[in-house]
Amino acid sequence: MIDITGTYTDQYQLAMAQAYFLSGRGRESARFDYFFRKLPFGGGYAVFAGLEDLLTVLERLRFDEADLGFLREQGMDPAFVESLRGFAFRGRVLAVREGDLVFPTCPVVTVEASLIEAQIVETLLLNILNFQTLVATKASRMRLAAGNEATLVDFGLRRAPGLGGYAASRAAIVGGFDATSNVRAGRDYGIPVSGTMAHSFIQAHDQELAAFRAFAAAHPTNCVLLVDTYDTLHSGVPNAIRVGQEMRQRGQRLRGIRLDSGDLAYLSKQARNMLDAAGLTETKIAASNQLDEYVIRSLREQGAPIDLFGVGTSLATGQPDGALDGVYKLAEVEGRPCLKLSESTDKITVPCAKQVFRVLDETGGFWGADAIAMADETDVERMHHPSDPHQSLVLVGRPQEPLLHPVMAQGRRRHEPASLTEIKRYSQERLARLPAEYKRFEYPHLYKVGLSTRLDQERNRLIAAHRSEPSS
Amino acid sequence: MIDITGTYTDQYQLAMAQAYFLSGRGRESARFDYFFRKLPFGGGYAVFAGLEDLLTVLERLRFDEADLGFLREQGMDPAFVESLRGFAFRGRVLAVREGDLVFPTCPVVTVEASLIEAQIVETLLLNILNFQTLVATKASRMRLAAGNEATLVDFGLRRAPGLGGYAASRAAIVGGFDATSNVRAGRDYGIPVSGTMAHSFIQAHDQELAAFRAFAAAHPTNCVLLVDTYDTLHSGVPNAIRVGQEMRQRGQRLRGIRLDSGDLAYLSKQARNMLDAAGLTETKIAASNQLDEYVIRSLREQGAPIDLFGVGTSLATGQPDGALDGVYKLAEVEGRPCLKLSESTDKITVPCAKQVFRVLDETGGFWGADAIAMADETDVERMHHPSDPHQSLVLVGRPQEPLLHPVMAQGRRRHEPASLTEIKRYSQERLARLPAEYKRFEYPHLYKVGLSTRLDQERNRLIAAHRSEPSS
């Protein structure tokens, strides 16, 4: 599916690369950090997703003949275009483990590469990580709302943003979903696929009962019947029960029914009672229709006996945010620290090669702070607020773990790709270590992020130096 | 880029297809309509987009070996899976012309194919059309806000929903954009590409002036300088003017400057004055940073002298809606009309083979109504509200044009694909025919949609018949 070539980038990356090439600076080394500024959905954390896809793309990235021909036609410098024939990403990448929880300002991925390579890959990196992190975070919130017992299935492909639905199905799993309706994503990513029937199948038969029987005959081990086409409680559920009893006589089992409209709390309770009274206690109830974390929470609070939630639009589009504001900022060129000034201090970038330390409590849980340090620091004794010089926090003696690990060297992965199952498990494990106050939907506790004393001083020195130049 | 195979679908389509196959009904003919229920963005119209991409995918759609192997592994019926080896879409497609304005309830695309083919292509059809129509509509609103003189450029790839950014760049053009930063979309769709420079390029040089000079040297004919890295009016614009004057001495011309932060209205006016005073009257001003149709309208109302707007997130994600609610509903099986009931009358589907007539005024402008009729009707004398039996509208004597045209027969396109430029031009032409009241952002005039008398009667007959059955 993913056929990303060198031109999967913004034109200005190539314009800058051409300028570096022509001025002989293309091979200078650069360091860029990927981070975001605002947690999505008004929540207290984000789930980092997309890393393995990014590494796969970086390993394979080339300009093909169509790319080169197009760039020549665009009037780009012929020698520069020719140089792209040998392009490959040969850089080093450090990253937080995929599935981990991440917070604003902290570098999540660091790219060390030539100026040209680092610039050309910026757009695809942002494109992949911003969207998958957004969707994984949304999925994680739904998992929190649904509890660990319920099955969560991605139904989003039809309302997904075009081919973006493919990555959304993957990111949903990272965030805690169990399965997808998207068969192609299932095929390529090894995600369990799940699907029932549509209203059209019922309509295409003269009678609902005949439709149910035909479906049961074709799917004796995996029959889930959609019961709301005509009248859920007076037609759909009774017909499903009849088919369920016929299946039982054949030694089969009706796997489930699906509710797709109406008051899901009321209907699920009534349907559960009817199924149980008919002895179909093992038949599950699935629900879909404009679900999100708030609707799922409400259904659970009402005690709705729903075993499976199918979620579409709000998951696959990351609504209501629609985008994560992740950016990719220059931190060093040829070992010299770089800064981007801004009138608002909290938008000034953080220079230098860095490490991020997560502060732990005595039991290994997350204490509620990430400290950004110089790459050669081994722990942080005091961290400083990134924009308010009056705020700092003593961390002496608190256990800390580094979050940035080398994942790619000279353009090659350093480890076998992690499986999606492993990433999901890791993410759940990390989420379990975050105290509940950070996970609530309303006014979550603020996770603190700061700079080590050395990094803070170096940044302040650079800010002062820049501001003292008359016209830098 | 687009490598959509047969498994690019929801699992339940394959589950239903298997049931049709096993019951011997797979070759029965079906008719499905694609339509949506709610106009996006609280607007008065939508711009239909994605049709040419859909037809391309339908022509090529196959199950490859990986697909077939996966479906076997999933435990699907071996004979059914084997039958998919010969799968191709061999149906007929009628559609509104891409770029036309479309309204709720009216069929925009009709698919006539075997039950199995029609069901399998549902998901990809919705996936392609829902997203592109959403983005094209958003783009069209920005074009209305910006006026016809301004240049509109899609900068969305970095915040776009993964690979969905590719289609977003295309849909932006349909809706009235001029260019994209997305090089790959430019290459594949023939879209003009456009790009300037990033802050990182300035930071990678010791001085802003040196960065500007290096960029001008590499891009003598297409140099646009980003002026807000340090201080827009005290550093960026003066340095850009200096380089512009140096370029002029070399017989070159500074094409533009770009503002990416701060008060764009104020800064653009100051920058324009400074450029003009220095004789750089031909140098354009580009602006970017969280733009949408409302910000663009405000900038224009303030008289901001901005020549080019670069729009990212809100365009590529179709914010704030994030999705169009388009659906694909069964209208006929083997020539028998089909209905889906619902407790709310306005969600009951419209059965039968249909045509849509757009009512025109005397000058060829849009009068404000689309009438849905039986396929064999040639015009509509009176149209009836789809859910309120007390409302109807006399259309006798008003000019009407049919909107649904055959675009595919036996799985092959009936015409050469329309170019994106043609589609854009057509869309602009259609938009010009819609009265202004339907185009305003606040409380737009309601475009009326209704059913012809024959279709209304047939639908009411079917509703009554369904409701009289005890347990259908």
TrEMBL record, chains A, B:
Catalyzes the first step in the biosynthesis of NAD from nicotinic acid, the ATP-dependent synthesis of beta-nicotinate D-ribonucleotide from nicotinate and 5-phospho-D-ribose 1-phosphate. The keyword Phosphoprotein applies. CDD domains: NAPRTase_A. It comes from Thioalkalicoccus limnaeus. Pathway: Cofactor biosynthesis; NAD(+) biosynthesis; nicotinate D-ribonucleotide from nicotinate: step 1/1. NCBIfam families: NAPRTase_put, PRK09243.1-2, PRK12484.1. Residues 354-457 form the Nicotinate phosphoribosyltransferase C-terminal domain. Keywords: Glycosyltransferase, Ligase, Phosphoprotein, Pyridine nucleotide biosynthesis, Transferase. It catalyses: 5-phospho-alpha-D-ribose 1-diphosphate + nicotinate + ATP + H2O = nicotinate beta-D-ribonucleotide + ADP + phosphate + diphosphate. It is an enzyme of class 6 (ligase). Belongs to the NAPRTase family. It comes from the Bacteria. Transiently phosphorylated on a His residue during the reaction cycle. Phosphorylation strongly increases the affinity for substrates and increases the rate of nicotinate D-ribonucleotide production. Dephosphorylation regenerates the low-affinity form of the enzyme, leading to product release. Residues 9-130 form the Nicotinate phosphoribosyltransferase N-terminal domain. InterPro entries: Aldolase_TIM, N/Namide_PRibTrfase, NAPRTase_C, NAPRTase_N, Nic_PRibTrfase-Fam, Nic_PRibTrfase_pncB, Nicotinate_pribotase-like_C. Its EC number is 6.3.4.21. This is Nicotinate phosphoribosyltransferase. One of its GO terms (molecular function) is nicotinate phosphoribosyltransferase activity. Residues 152-349 form the Nicotinate/nicotinamide phosphoribosyltransferase domain.
